[in-house]
Amino acid sequence: MRYLPHTPEDIREMLAVAGARDLEDLFAAIPPACRRTEALRLPPPLTEWELTRHLEDLAAHGGGDWRVFLGAGSQAHHIPALVPSLAGRSEFLTSYTPYQPEMSQGTLQAIFEFQTLISRLTGLAVSNASMYDGATALAEAALMAMRVTRRATLAVSSLAHPHWREVLATYMAPRGYAALVTLPAGPDGRTDLSPLASLPPSSPPAALLLQSPNILGVFEDLPAAAGTIHAAGGLLVSSFTEPFALGLSKSPGSLGADIVCGEAQSLGLDQGFGGPTLGVLSCSREHMRQIPGRLVGQTTDLEGKRAFVLTLSTREQHIRRSKAVSNICSNAGHCALTAAVFMAAIGGSGLRKMAQVNLDLAEYLKAGLLRAGFAPLFSSPTFNEFTLKAPTGFSARYERLKKKRILAGFPLAAWYPDQPAFRDAWLFGVTETKTREDIDALLREM
Fold this sequence. Notes:
Layout: H1 8-18, H2 48-62, E1 67-68, H3 82-87, H4 90-93, H5 105-122, E2 126-127, H6 134-149, E3 153-157, H7 162-172, E4 179-183, E5 205-211, H8 222-231, E6 235-240, E7 259-263, E8 279-283, E9 294-300, E10 306-313, H9 333-371, E11 375-376, E12 385-389, H10 394-403, E13 406-407, E14 410-411, E15 425-429, H11 436-444
Parallel strand pairs: 1-13, 3-4, 3-5, 5-6, 6-7
Antiparallel strand pairs: 2-8, 7-8, 9-10, 11-12, 12-15, 14-15
Helix pairs in contact: 5-9, 6-7, 9-11
């Protein structure tokens, strides 16, 4: 955005149009007790060039040239230049979902294409457009499973993202539901499903909530999980924080998942210091009327031309508000559109190639760390994140690396302080944004 402050003449013209005598008059409707009377403590004004230099200094301090080997829910990926170029066109960037949706065929087609691409990725027939983020998508998937099964108990993997589980617990707390049963980690780095067998018959699980790859970077055994929960009459909800993993693995839907949800920030969205992000949610056709958000369908108009319609919109603002399944409306539609542009730009083959690069770089880093004295915790397959046991004294080395602008992993003890197995466990992540030279620079310091 250009540095174009309003001139006194601009301010006078705008006040005249607004019918206000001065700037203070604009706030007359706000009670005096709710208004700030003293001046803000702000630095002196800067010229455009001084402000630009100040922002560049802040950006550099925030991590511009750092080598970051973290994952844990948010990943840095290369974004082709055509993605922001197309998604930033004014007809996309300034549009808003209209209240007469069929009047905006472009908006509806963009949503339809996004839904189609996400369904191909997840392997399920129906996808909505869209959710706020992966955490709220998981919570909404859990509520959806409870509506379908009419049950009140949820079995949740302890290896799902800890922040997501906190959001899930927050969703459930005021609803008075029966129980959240947390499943422990097994010795192979996968979720231990054995506690499901000990659940009382009076409280059968509505759903089993897994993340794959999980927070340790390990792929869960989804077919085994599906068999276990389906035998108990519940649904399998499979979530993900890294959609690139689906470029190499089979889709969760084809492995038995009934509902798939996750975080799609990796698909063309900058990390942006925490947002905006993009939650996705897919389900089988039989459960589509329980999915939150909106669904766009394809049809033909009176002239036989291809057309798009808002098929379902289970929102509390609409006419049948008493039947709304959620008060979550949609994510910012522009995030979904950006992800659709990204997926269409790289295609299925591009996604596989980029996923393979991620896997290869992660294995290269893992092998180097093992040579440097780290020890494996699990033998199960991983994608672009993995967990290793650090050698004695690594914490001091970690701090030394930070001074050299290298973030070498994440200590899992911060999230699992009560689990001795994770006391010296560190999670590492790497994507195609890192080169072998970047990895070698880290390994030389180990």
